Amino acid sequence: MRRYGPAALLLLTGGAVLRITLFGDLYLRYVQAGLRPYLIVSGVALVLLGVVTAILCHHTPSPHEDAHDKDTHDEGDDGFAGHEGHSHGPAGPRVAWLLTLPALALLLFPPPALGSYSAGREAAQRAAQGVGTFPALPAGNPVELTVAGFSSRAIYDSGRSLKGRTVRLTGFVTHGDDGTWYVTRLLVTCCAADATTGKVEIRDADDDALPADTWVTVTGTWRPKGTLGSDAAWPPVLDAATVTRVKQPADPYEKP
């Protein structure tokens, strides 16, 4: 059965990729939605390659059979086989078997989306953009904004478009060392590997004991802080009117 190992590994990896793309939205924990077709094609290609490899292995003599035939041909009159007949060819690079564990994990126990641990490791980095005016917000209150969108307006908008408006933000809870807590989202350009952190400090909330990674929707008003474009303006502050626990969305990341 050892010679079927490469085929089994290809089928396992391809099946894991198809499992997270064809039968749900799990792939959104790792990559952008636009990459789904490419993942499906890759998964199908791996499965087909695994099937072809298994068929070829079935019709190809194993190294043991080749060695046995060589022993038979090399056997002399004294009945002893040649020493070289006992060599066995490799069944492929052993390091390839390291793919088995992540493939099994993806197939059986898909890792969760990045959360507060990843956000905590991310330094407070902001896009290099200058202070200026932003487009007007839609009419009506509350205004649904992304965490990144709210942060940009709070820190860089010289037109103060957030002033007097009620906004609604959704994200997961992270905690600061001084007892503050934040609504946090990870911004993904391509995949989870390039995720960057955006967060908004929440004040005046009734419930300050929410555990980390709890998903919430917060409605409130912007509290100006620091000079526009300066480090003192980071992170922006929202005075909370309501805090509601919600389920993690199917796509947990924000897009640029």
TrEMBL record:
NCBIfam families: TIGR03943 family putative permease subunit
Sorted UniProt keywords: Membrane, Transmembrane, Transmembrane helix
Signal peptide: none
Region of interest called Disordered, as start-end residue ranges on this chain: 62-88
Superkingdom classification of source: Bacteria
Species the sequence originates in: Streptomyces asoensis
Protein name per its UniProtKB record: TIGR03943 family protein
Keyword Ligase: no
Keyword hit for Coiled coil: no
TM segment ranges: 35-57
InterPro entries: DUF1980, DUF1980_C, UPF0703_membrane_permease
Basic and acidic residues: compositionally biased ranges: 62-73
One Pfam family here: DUF1980_C
All copies of domain DUF1980, residue ranges: 154-253
